[in-house]
Design brief:
Blueprint lengths: L4 E4 L4 H5 L2 H15 L3 E4 L13 E5 L2 E5 L4 H9 L15 E4 L4 H4 L17 H6 L4 H6 L4 H11 L11 H9 L8 E6 L8 H8 L1 H15 L3 E6 L4 H16 L15 E6 L9 H8 L23 E5 H13 L1 H5 L2 E2 L2 E2 L1 E8 L5 E6 L4 H8 L9 E6 L6 E2 L10 H6 L8 E6 L4 H15 L5 H18 L4 H18 L3 H5 L1 H10 L10 H6 L1
Parallel strand pairs: 1-2, 6-7, 6-9, 7-8, 12-16
Antiparallel strand pairs: 1-3, 3-4, 4-5, 10-11, 12-13, 14-15, 14-16
Helix pairs in contact: 2-3, 7-8, 7-10, 9-10, 9-11, 10-13, 17-18, 17-21, 18-19, 19-21
Length: 527
């Protein structure tokens, strides 16, 4: 009996934007025309985005890759034997060999993204065949507090911002007296520049998020969960809703999870496009149907969150790490990393970079390794001038800081932040005073307007930078900028205003020549 050939074409939004749908259709048509029995599987992305659409053909249990493939390439590949099971020996400039053996893949430690790009994202059968739901199965045999303790011992910290210990949040909600409705809220409002890990996991392995949220619900006594998804992610919404429907049908969600006494329902809610709703209290306001305004804290969401009830709010990557921790154990996760930064981090490489994509690795890799080695340096071939880590509110690091290990405390020691681990690279044509202006402008546009330091400080910041650019009393106005940053950092209600000084002050500190000041020793050493 002839075995059906499986060909994989990503359904990931990045691949679709590069023509993956057209490639999949062309492959299906070519197979039909040739009378070859082929199943085209729409998998997630492997994360090698410079190769998208990446077509994979399975032969003798090995997946061979070709990319980037356009629909115009399909006929030539098919004529050369792509659909005849000859992928292993097919000569083509698009061939990259066995995908798992590619240098970019082999250097990674994939715990959260282990299935992404491998399985059919919306096939529950596929998910279970690749160790899916093993974490939940173990959790169902544990006491809730034992689950919380396991997450605490793993050292898992928030993957979306300040790196707050996940176990502490869960313990706080767990300890809230029963009888109250409790909620699990997933912050999927991924709005930082250069970040796409949340989108990739939701599109490429949505069940891992569903499983992670279900485990969280059992651990803290929550029976309802919401995924707050940004409106710009329609492909993720489709995948998540398909996964939730499949989980409900199979008894992994609902009134009695797998025949147990635990109940958990899950729902996707779409945001309205406000960047500030990535801040947890603004998110809660929006989820309640109100305008996304920051709430003053205390009370903390763990005490009074959604609809005034105890609420766990975690980022997508935090919740997606939970199934591995429950399946393999806390120590297996904690064995990776450095210092207080345990486990792995899915790092997103973007900007002016030769090999942009998703790279999951243990904490401790240096910024220089990520940019020069794994990322291959700039796409333009010009020298790297600055690297911004942590989105539009992250600090700009010069080459002199490339020895900084990817670690929350190491970045904080140099006035930087990891945030959601987006790494955006700039070459030596970047003008850093313009980047500082952009930071102020971004904050002024996205501010919810509730607090004065953020609302007014950012606007005054744009005006003052414009004066420096125009040569109007530059030293006096640079002093005003420093004062504004100090006020915003310590006076803003949330991280939008509080973190805007990071890109502004790092640009001024490390690239003073772009502001009309003499270069520092650090800047000179980097030349």
């Amino acid at each position: 009996m002839t075995k059906t050939l499986r060909v994989f074409v990503p359904r990931d939004a990045a691949a679709v934007a590069c023509g993956a749908d057209e490639v999949a259709s062309a492959l299906a048509a070519a197979a039909k025309k040739a009378g070859i029995d082929v199943t085209v599987v729409r998998n997630g992305s492997r994360g090698m985005l410079w190769l998208e659409p990446l077509v994979e053909v399975e032969h003798d249990g090995v997946r061979y890759g070709f990319g980037p493939v356009s629909k115009e390439d399909v006929d030539g590949l098919v004529k050369a034997g792509l659909l005849d099971g000859k992928a292993a020996t097919l000569f083509s400039p698009l061939a990259i060999g066995a995908v798992e053996e590619h240098a970019y893949m082999k250097r990674q430690t994939r715990l959260t993204f282990v299935r992404c790009g491998v399985t059919d994202p919306v096939s529950l059968e596929d998910y279970r065949a690749h160790d899916g739901y093993k974490g939940l199965e173990r959790a169902l045999g544990m006491k809730p507090i034992e689950i919380v303790d396991e997450v605490s011992k793993s050292g898992l910290r928030g993957r979306g911002g300040a790196g707050f210990p996940t176990g502490i949040k869960w313990k706080t909600v767990h300890d809230t007296p029963m009888g109250q409705q409790k909620y699990i809220v997933c912050n999927a409002d991924e709005g930082d520049s250069g970040t796409f890990a949340d989108r990739m996991i939701m599109e490429g392995d949505p069940f891992v998020l569903v499983e992670g949220m279900t485990i969280a619900g059992i651990a803290v006594g929550a029976t309802k969960g919401y995924i707050y998804l940004r409106s710009e992610y329609p492909h993720a919404a489709i995948a998540l809703n398909q996964a939730i429907a499949a989980a409900n049908k199979a008894g992994y969600l609902g009134r009695s999870i797998r025949g147990s006494d635990y109940a958990f329902d899950l729902e996707v809610r779409i945001g309205a496009g406000a960047y500030v709703c990535g801040e947890e209290t603004s998110l809660l306001e929006s989820l309640e149907g109100k305008r996304g305004l920051v709430r003053a804290k205390p009370p903390l969401p763990a005490h009074k969150g959604l609809f005034g009830q105890p609420t766990v709010i975690n980022n997508v990557l935090s919740l997606a790490a939970v199934p591995y921790i429950l399946d393999k154990g806390a120590q297996a996760y904690a064995d990776y990393g450095m210092g207080r930064s345990r486990g792995t981090m899915p790092i997103q490489l973007a900007g002016n970079l030769k090999y942009g994509g998703l790279f999951e690795t243990a904490f401790g890799i240096t910024l220089g390794e990520l940019v020069d080695d794994i990322g291959g340096g700039t796409l333009t071939g010009r020298p790297v001038k600055a690297v911004q880590v942590g989105g539009p509110l992250g600090a700009y690091f010069p080459r002199g800081y490339f020895d900084t290990p990817f670690d929350y405390e190491a970045f904080a020691a140099r006035d930087g932040l990891i945030g959601h681990a987006g790494v955006v690279v700039f070459d030596d044509t970047a003008n850093m005073i313009k980047q500082a202006r952009f930071a102020f402008e971004f904050c002024s546009v996205e501010s919810c307007g509730k607090c004065t330091p953020c609302r007014i400080g950012s606007t005054r910041g744009v005006e003052t930078v414009d004066k420096v650019i125009a040569g109007i009393e530059p030293e006096k106005n640079l002093a005003v900028i420093e004062d504004l940053c100090n006020t915003m950092k310590f006076g803003s209600l949330c991280a939008l205003g509080g973190f805007t000084p990071y890109p502004v002050m790092s640009a001024l500190t490390h690239f003073p020549e772009d502001f009309g000041r003499p270069a520092t020793k650090l800047a000179e050493a980097a030349e």
